[in-house]
Design a protein that fits this description.
With about 750 residues, the chain is α/β, with parallel strands linked by helices. Helices cover about 45% and strands about 15% of the residues. It has 31 helices and 25 strands. The strands form 6 sheets. Strands 3-2-1-4-5-6-7 form a 7-stranded parallel sheet, with helices on both faces. A 6-stranded parallel sheet has the order 10-9-8-11-12-13, sandwiched between helices. Strands 14, 17, 18, 19, 20 and 23 form a 6-stranded parallel sheet that branches.
């Protein structure tokens, strides 16, 4: 197992049947991206299908794996209600679990058909725009926003498109996934020499080649590229323009014949190859790759040119600035400006050293940020997580809480409480943040929250509340200035590695400050906290068979032996066993508790000696998060209860923790979390002596300026979710304080 990884979720009980809906099956930017994902989806987890609303071209079919069924609906031009019915019939016949539409031309039909047939999960992907003035039509903008209510998740290939969906379509950012395009780099290794590549496209060895790849669509603005080429040809007799892609019905050629001055002479120096299966080899013969688009989501062809180490000149539109770093991986010009495009291409041709350097930097950028496997797995994980959350059974307690929370919102009780209560500070406590599909295979449900739920909570927090960091909280206590209304401080206990992998990117996306309380010895010396050690040991014993469990039960003795016997007898799962065992061991003296854990660990590792997964943060991750705005506090050095230690030992635990964090981050912590929330008057005096200004407990409730800053209350963020579901009503109700003091 790779260090830093967590156990993968168990295999799905059956293949998820995923239908991708595209406008036309052809080798184009969006369509080819879909083809590559469909071809690579793990067949043990997914059964993919493709529906082409129009027809399917032979090159598109040839690029697909043979086991992918393709359905053609032959939609006519204009609005076609019959297409909705045809697609709905296909969904029912093929028993589709997940429908994934791509770009505007499929959005209307796919969402209506999916909701009419009650498809469990609806995903819509935005890869680019057909024109620069997207959503300028009022009726279309209204349709986009109305249909968005029927979509569970959106995917976008660029941050620009994510923002477009969030702002123009009014979609919560927590429902939008940024999954950048990826490149299969193996296809771009061992490319032919430039001379051999030029021979493939019919260019002479002495010619210098400007190239473009992509289906001939208006958004590509190839007429601007053609005019730029005409300008360059006035002074350079050795240039050839090679255009790879499908020109539907020869419409672009016909347009050039009508509109382009001097076309008959220029045409001799332009090669139209049509679609080609050997694009990587063709790219190897380009001196400059040119993109003249008036909009791009995240251009697959620019990525492929970079993978082939070609110098890129592109228009500064859409997601292209995410790829082309000016003067480093390429150069950009304004759209619709043939003079600027010609000038920059000419400069690159005249500076071959800079062009080669840009090609090498572009290849490195693709290797670092556009891994093809990551793109495929990003889609796969979204499908599994969304389906699992949709299919999760409602617990009676969750349903009851949802009803109460909804009633409180619509009755005005939450708003009334907010109006009548003075501003206060709510502190949220988190531990593990992992994707829901992964978390289903883990114990410790009470300490874990799905990353999907966490993102929805942070989205709500950023848009409706006043997130605060530790320094701002401490300043309010010191100055006695009232807290702003709806103030919230996000905190994490223990310092799990998943805080870096899953929580940190979400915190940055929504610009929510947070504090993580670290158990420094676990970072320094490796290993896990005792309850995680216990969980991994029971997991390994369970996988080794019932005999191993019964042997371990006899070795561990009571009270844990009885719990392990339940798992061996098939009356309980290993995950529920771990939760029960933790509850029992919490009540034992520390020496006895750790002795039992060590016994189980030895038994488990003798059966499975593979390295245990790293569960805790390392200092590199801590430093990265600190540079990104996350603050760190102490959680003692070894997670020992301060109120059980002699004064000198307690002082050493605290000081060792604070010094270690300060050494690694360059900032001595001002905050601390009491292990299990256990504090005393002596421990508060100790913290005050050591310069700690804020300390948090596990007592629920809100905090005012009259609250002791070394005995702050926190709300367990796990209660702000309904299993795999997020409820903004419940979130608001909990933070409002209506449920403080009540039974959970």
């Amino acid at each position: 197992m790779i260090e830093g990884s967590t156990p993968a979720p168990g295999p799905p009980t059956r293949q998820l049947r995923v239908l991708h809906v595209i406008h036309r099956l052809v080798i184009g930017g969006t369509e080819y991206g879909v083809i590559k994902v469909v071809n690579r989806l793990d067949r043990s987890r997914f059964a993919p299908f493709i529906c082409s609303l129009r027809d399917a071209f032979p090159d598109g079919r040839a690029a697909l794996r043979d086991d992918v069924p393709v359905f053609e609906l032959h939609r006519r031009e204009g609005l076609s209600p019959a297409t909705v019915f045809a697609l709905a019939r296909l969904i029912v016949e093929q028993r589709i679990d997940i429908i994934h539409s791509h770009n505007w031309t499929t959005y209307f039909y796919a969402v209506l058909a999916a909701r009419a047939t009650r498809v469990p999960v609806v995903v819509h992907g935005e890869h680019g725009r057909e024109t620069a003035g997207i959503s300028s039509d009022t009726r279309r903008r209204l349709a986009e926003r109305v249909l968005a209510r029927g979509v569970d998740h959106f995917t976008a290939v660029s941050r620009d498109l994510c923002e477009h969906i969030a702002v123009d379509w009014r979609v919560p950012r927590s429902r939008i996934r940024f999954i950048p395009n990826g490149v299969d780099l193996q296809r771009y290794d061992d490319l032919p020499s430039p001379a051999a590549a030029r021979a493939l496209m019919g260019a002479a060895p002495s010619e210098r080649v400007i190239g473009a790849v992509g289906t001939f669509r208006d958004v590509k603005d190839y007429s601007t590229l053609m005019r730029a080429f005409a300008i360059l040809r006035r002074t350079r007799a050795d240039l050839r323009l090679v255009m790879v892609g499908l020109d539907f019905g020869g419409r672009f050629l016909a347009r050039m014949e009508r509109e382009m001055p001097g076309w008959e002479e220029l045409r001799h120096w332009v090669t139209f190859t049509g679609t080609r299966p050997d694009v990587p080899q063709i790219l190897a013969g380009f001196d400059v790759y040119a993109s003249s688009s008036i909009y791009e989501g995240m251009s697959n062809t620019i990525l492929e040119a970079m993978a082939a180490r070609r110098a890129v000149v592109a228009t500064r539109v859409g997601g292209t600035p995410d790829l082309v770093d000016e003067g480093v991986t390429g150069w950009m010009v304004p759209p619709g400006d043939p003079e600027a495009l010609a000038e920059r291409i000419g400069w690159v041709l005249d500076h071959p050293t800079e062009a080669r350097a840009a090609g090498l930097a572009g290849r490195l950028r693709v290797e670092e940020r556009h891994n093809f496997s990551a793109m495929v797995e990003g889609n796969a994980q979204l499908y599994e997580a969304a389906f699992a959350r949709k299919r999760a059974a409602w617990r009676k307690s969750h349903r009851a809480r949802a009803i109460v929370a909804g009633a409180a919102r619509w009755s005005g009780a939450v708003a009334l409480r907010r109006a009548l209560t003075p501003p206060a500070l709510s502190i949220l406590a988190y531990h593990n943040v992992v994707p829901y599909a992964e978390g289903r295979e883990m114990p410790g449900d009470a300490m874990r929250i799905g990353s999907e739920i966490f993102e929805e909570q942070m989205d709500r927090l950023a848009s409706r509340y006043h997130p605060m960091g530790a320094a701002e909280v401490a300043e309010h206590f010191q100055s006695r200035r009232p807290f702003p209304r709806d103030s919230v401080w996000v905190t994490f206990d223990d310092g799990y590695a998943d805080n870096y992998r899953h929580a940190y990117p979400i915190l940055r996306r929504y610009r929510v400050p947070a504090t993580i309380f670290l158990v420094t010895d676990r970072i320094d010396h490796g290993g896990a906290l005792w309850w995680d050690d216990l969980g991994e040991s029971v997991r390994r014993l369970d996988r080794s068979g019932h005999g191993a469990l019964r042997d371990a039960a006899r070795s561990a003795g009571e009270p844990i032996g009885r719990v392990l016997e339940d798992v061996a007898g098939g009356t309980a799962s290993w995950t529920s066993c771990v939760d029960r065992a933790i509850a029992l061991l919490n009540g034992l003296p520390e020496a006895q508790r750790l002795g039992i854990v060590d016994t189980l660990r030895s038994a488990a590792d003798s059966l499975d000696p593979s390295p245990r997964p790293r569960l805790m943060l390392n200092w590199d991750e801590v430093r990265t998060m600190h540079a990104g705005g996350v603050t760190f506090g102490g959680h003692t050095a070894s997670h020992v209860f301060l109120d059980t230690l002699p004064a000198e030992e307690a002082d050493a635990e605290v000081e060792r923790s604070l010094v270690r964090i300060g050494t690694e981050t360059g900032e001595r912590p001002i905050s601390l979390a009491y292990p299990r929330g256990r504090s005393s008057e002596a421990s508060r005096r100790l913290l005050q002596k050591r310069g700690v200004r804020l300390a948090v407990t596990t007592m629920p409730g809100a905090n005012t300026l009259s609250t002791d800053p070394l005995s702050l209350k926190r709300r367990d963020a796990g209660y702000l979710a309904l299993g795999p579901r997020f409820s903004s009503s419940l979130f608001d109700l909990e933070i409002s304080g209506w449920l403080d003091g009540g039974r959970r």
